[in-house]
Protein backbone atom coordinates (compact mmCIF):
# COMPACT_ATOMS: atom_id res chain seq x y z
CA UNK A 1 0.00 0.00 0.00
CA UNK A 2 1.28 3.43 -0.87
CA UNK A 3 -0.87 5.30 1.66
CA UNK A 4 -3.38 6.44 -0.95
CA UNK A 5 -7.11 6.17 -0.44
CA UNK A 6 -8.74 2.79 -0.97
CA UNK A 7 -10.91 2.80 -4.07
CA UNK A 8 -13.60 0.41 -2.84
CA UNK A 9 -15.69 0.46 -6.01
CA UNK A 10 -12.67 -0.85 -7.93
CA UNK A 11 -12.06 -3.56 -5.37
CA UNK A 12 -15.58 -4.66 -4.54
CA UNK A 13 -18.34 -3.22 -6.73
CA UNK A 14 -16.32 -3.56 -9.91
CA UNK A 15 -15.49 -7.10 -9.04
CA UNK A 16 -11.82 -7.53 -8.08
CA UNK A 17 -12.76 -9.19 -4.80
CA UNK A 18 -15.66 -10.97 -6.49
CA UNK A 19 -13.31 -12.23 -9.23
CA UNK A 20 -11.12 -13.62 -6.48
CA UNK A 21 -14.09 -15.41 -4.93
CA UNK A 22 -15.08 -16.82 -8.31
CA UNK A 23 -11.53 -18.02 -8.92
CA UNK A 24 -11.75 -20.61 -6.16
CA UNK A 25 -13.46 -23.93 -6.73
CA UNK A 26 -15.97 -24.92 -4.06
CA UNK A 27 -16.02 -21.72 -2.03
CA UNK A 28 -13.66 -19.28 -0.41
CA UNK A 29 -13.28 -17.62 2.96
CA UNK A 30 -13.14 -13.91 3.63
CA UNK A 31 -9.60 -14.43 4.94
CA UNK A 32 -8.52 -15.94 1.60
CA UNK A 33 -9.91 -12.95 -0.28
CA UNK A 34 -8.25 -10.57 2.17
CA UNK A 35 -4.84 -12.20 1.85
CA UNK A 36 -5.10 -12.27 -1.94
CA UNK A 37 -5.86 -8.53 -2.02
CA UNK A 38 -3.06 -7.84 0.49
CA UNK A 39 -0.59 -9.83 -1.65
CA UNK A 40 -1.63 -7.76 -4.70
CA UNK A 41 -0.97 -4.56 -2.73
CA UNK A 42 -4.61 -3.46 -2.92
CA UNK A 43 -5.27 -3.53 0.85
CA UNK A 44 -3.17 -3.30 3.99
CA UNK A 45 -3.24 -6.25 6.38
CA UNK A 46 -4.96 -4.62 9.36
CA UNK A 47 -8.02 -5.59 11.43
CA UNK A 48 -9.96 -2.43 10.40
CA UNK A 49 -9.31 -3.18 6.72
CA UNK A 50 -10.48 -6.78 7.22
CA UNK A 51 -13.71 -5.56 8.85
CA UNK A 52 -14.27 -3.02 6.09
CA UNK A 53 -13.77 -5.65 3.38
CA UNK A 54 -16.24 -7.91 5.17
CA UNK A 55 -18.78 -5.12 5.28
CA UNK A 56 -18.27 -4.23 1.62
CA UNK A 57 -18.56 -7.82 0.41
CA UNK A 58 -21.76 -8.27 2.41
CA UNK A 59 -23.45 -5.52 0.38
CA UNK A 60 -25.52 -6.63 -2.62
CA UNK A 61 -23.48 -6.51 -5.85
CA UNK A 62 -25.65 -3.83 -7.47
CA UNK A 63 -25.53 -1.46 -4.52
CA UNK A 64 -23.15 1.45 -4.99
CA UNK A 65 -20.32 1.50 -2.47
CA UNK A 66 -19.63 4.73 -0.64
CA UNK A 67 -16.25 6.37 -1.25
CA UNK A 68 -14.91 5.86 2.30
Short description:
The chain is mainly alpha-helical.
Any overview of this molecule?
The chain has helices at 8-13, 16-22, 30-39, 47-58. With 68 residues, the protein is mainly α. The mean pLDDT is 74. It is globular. It contains four helices and no strands.
Principal-axes shape call: globular
Poorly predicted segments = none
> Which structural class is indicated by helix and strand composition?
mainly alpha
Number of strands: 0
What about the largest sheet?
none
Roughly what is the average pLDDT, rounded to an integer?
Answer: 74
Element order, helices and strands?
Answer: HHHH
Termini separation comes to 16 Å
Characteristics:
68 residues, mainly alpha, globular, single chain
Helix-strand layout with pairing:
Elements: H1 8-13, H2 16-22, H3 30-39, H4 47-58
Amino acid sequence: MDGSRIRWPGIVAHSRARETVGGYEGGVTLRQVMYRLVSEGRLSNTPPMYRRLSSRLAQPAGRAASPT
